[in-house]
Amino acid sequence: MDDYLKQTPYSDPGDLDTSSLPRAPGELACLVRNLIIHRGEGERFGHSVPEARLHHDAESRYVTEILRILRERGDAPLTERRAPKERFVGTCRDFSLLLCSLLRATGRPARLRCGFATYFVDGFHEDHWVTEYRTPEGRWRLADAQVHHGYDMPFDPMDVPRDRFLVAGKAWRACREGRVDPGDFGLSGVGRLRGLWFVWGNVVRDLAAVNGVELLPWDGWGPQFLGRVPLTEHERAAADAAGSRDDLARPYEDPRLAVPAEITSYTTYLGDRRVILAAR
């Protein structure tokens, strides 16, 4: 568990003074919810997100970048709720990464999980990221900071039921066993961004996150990450092996799922970009 107390290059908050931060996971999630606005929820807050922020904020790969942007937009302490115009404009991954960072910084093991949520669109498994944290009793819980405040959820966002959020490996296994339709997994608003290839990409990203490489949701390193070529039997077999494991430690013994030092970020607004990742 010590590994999940350590910050990664992505979650490291740098010189952030954590002495005034709350220690309770729910309070930290509320803090995160008050610092970030999802780039698709401006209307919910009656706020028109500036185009530049819509395009650039969520490309911030590291918590230090998120905190830098927050400092530029307001000098209030991070513990104070911010107006939408002073928030970081991100995605579910950013809510989850910042919560993970603050949990680790305040002494609680935590990690990111990539998978699919069933609580946004009825009958569909929406691409999503959450934070997984360890309780003092040793149980791992899923926490969704994005929906912690302002969404009417039929469950505690600090203990998301495992059947309401499927980690990517379990989603892959269900698809491969024919228990679910792979076409019901992906982005509900974009018909072409769904299917078994999409689930496979999330398996790779979830494995990476559990092992300290918290990628952006659109990171990849080949046309298979975009569904432009069929998955090979080797790629399917590697995901089969990963999906059958509950303990995802040390997956990089299998080079078929290893994250290379240089990847492609298939960014939504800015086009494809080659990125050299920070060394662990």
From TrEMBL:
Occurrences of domain Transglutaminase-like (ranges): 89-145
Entries under InterPro entries matching the protein: Papain-like_cys_pep_sf (IPR038765), Transglutaminase-like (IPR002931)
Region (Disordered): 1-21
Annotated signal peptide: none
Name of the protein in question: Transglutaminase-like domain-containing protein
Organism from which the protein derives: Streptomyces caelestis
